[in-house]
């Protein structure tokens, strides 16, 4: 991988979801200065799937990703039997979809704000763009089509569905294939999550992929949950769950030839969880406000967000982890829900709010939606030293930039 920085500010190149050593991970400690280049050889030892990359400098990740420093990264395995079962013609029946929301000035320029309300709930634009285009149309063949969806928005959650309620099959999550396709009519993606779905267009009908305007997920009752503050934070005034956002129009072109006309039933080479017995538990609490009042932040002040009562400090190692040991991490969130991302590995989600999560419906993950609490089973097979540690953080990028992040070594 060659990354050249032609900007006037430092960037990084974080390979989101890749299992690489800390010094190659592209976290805040490994800046690429203006005018510099980074040339890396990445050794890929993980399942085929849909991954991505983005800039990750502390305090500027939200703005840099929003302005364009992000993209999709596909890992393929030509020797795997699943390539015989799935659509694989890039851009024809295997279609990457990078989903982001954007706000524009009257001149058509990108507008970004990370203060006040944007800090508290994360920045949310009023236009959805797909691969950089607003409300695009895609012509597809009359057969099985594979859509790879990446939520690359700074904070928005999507519940993808078709306008006519048409069913589809989920075949992969963040880190590779599921054991078998799962039928559904709605799939939810928090920021940084990915999903692959198969859609059968053999009936020739045009369909629109849509999502409701999902409100910010606040927790608790009274003022924060359902009262005036809850509405200000996105449960009423700033989001309308009855409004459908148009994501993409898919129109069948009978002149295109479908390479697959039948749905697969089983993926024999899909990854399976093989972590071994956990040797310890760790607890992480995502803290919304520290050291100042909420109203002050909403009125334009700065807030310190944190994890386990500490805001992020580049000079502090928060956790020390043993190479190759399996752990259970318990993550809890106060005030609102958060997507929690762990660098350098993939994990299995064991439970959410005390309810067991079925691996067959999620597969391996690197982001977990924490709306209350979650447990994950995790192991690290690559080292990360104190000069280039791994990160764990909320993937609402404005929360990450405000300090809802920690760092850890693996040795």
UniProtKB/TrEMBL annotation:
Keywords: Metal-binding, Oxidoreductase. The keyword rRNA-binding does not apply. Gene3D superfamilies: Cupredoxins - blue copper proteins. SUPFAM superfamilies: Cupredoxins. Residues 3-78, 304-410 form the Plastocyanin-like domain. It holds the Pfam family Cu-oxidase_2. The keyword Oxidoreductase applies. One of its GO terms (molecular function) is copper ion binding. This is Bilirubin oxidase. The lineage of its organism: Bacteria, Pseudomonadati, Pseudomonadota, Alphaproteobacteria, Hyphomicrobiales.
């Amino acid at each position: 991988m060659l990354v050249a920085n032609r900007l006037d500010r430092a960037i990084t190149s974080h390979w989101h979801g890749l299992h690489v050593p800390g010094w190659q991970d592209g976290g805040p400690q490994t800046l690429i200065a203006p005018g510099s280049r980074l040339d890396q050889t990445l050794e890929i030892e993980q399942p085929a799937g849909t991954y991505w990359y983005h800039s990750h400098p502390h305090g500027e990740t939200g703005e840099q990703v929003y302005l364009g420093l992000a993209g999709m990264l596909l890992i393929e395995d030509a020797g795997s039997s699943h390539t015989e079962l799935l659509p694989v013609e890039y851009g024809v029946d295997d279609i990457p979809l990078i989903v982001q929301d954007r706000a524009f000035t009257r001149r058509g320029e990108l507008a970004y704000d990370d203060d006040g309300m944007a800090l508290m709930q994360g920045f949310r634009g009023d236009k959805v763009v797909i691969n950089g285009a607003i409300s695009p149309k895609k012509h597809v063949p009359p057969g099985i089509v594979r859509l790879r969806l990446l939520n690359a928005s700074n904070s928005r959650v999507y519940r993808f569905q078709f306008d006519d309620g048409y069913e589809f099959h989920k075949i992969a999550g963040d880190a590779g294939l599921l054991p078998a396709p799962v039928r559904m009519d709605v799939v939810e993606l928090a920021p940084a999550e990915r999903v692959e779905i198969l859609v059968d267009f053999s009936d020739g009908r045009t369909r629109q992929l849509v999502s409701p305007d999902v409100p910010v997920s606040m927790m608790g009752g009274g003022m924060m949950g359902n009262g005036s503050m809850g509405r200000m934070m996105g449960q009423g005034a700033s989001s309308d769950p009855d409004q459908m956002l148009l994501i993409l129009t898919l129109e069948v072109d009978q002149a295109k030839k479908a390479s697959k006309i039948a749905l697969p039933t089983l993926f024999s080479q899909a990854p399976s969880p093989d972590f071994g017995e956990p040797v310890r538990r760790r607890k992480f609490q995502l803290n919304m406000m520290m050291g100042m009042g909420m109203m002050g932040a909403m009125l334009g002040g700065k807030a310190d967000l944190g994890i386990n009562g500490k805001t992020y400090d580049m000079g502090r190692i928060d956790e020390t982890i043993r190479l190759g040991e399996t752990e259970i991490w318990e993550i809890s969130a106060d005030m609102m829900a958060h997507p929690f991302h762990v660098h350098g590995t993939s994990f299995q989600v064991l439970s959410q709010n005390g309810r067991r999560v079925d691996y067959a419906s999620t597969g391996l993950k690197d982001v977990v939606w924490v709306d209350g609490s979650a447990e994950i089973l995790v192991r690290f097979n690559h080292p990360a030293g104190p000069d280039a540690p791994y990160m764990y953080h909320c993937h609402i990028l404005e929360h990450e930039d405000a300090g809802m992040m920690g760092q850890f070594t693996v040795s």
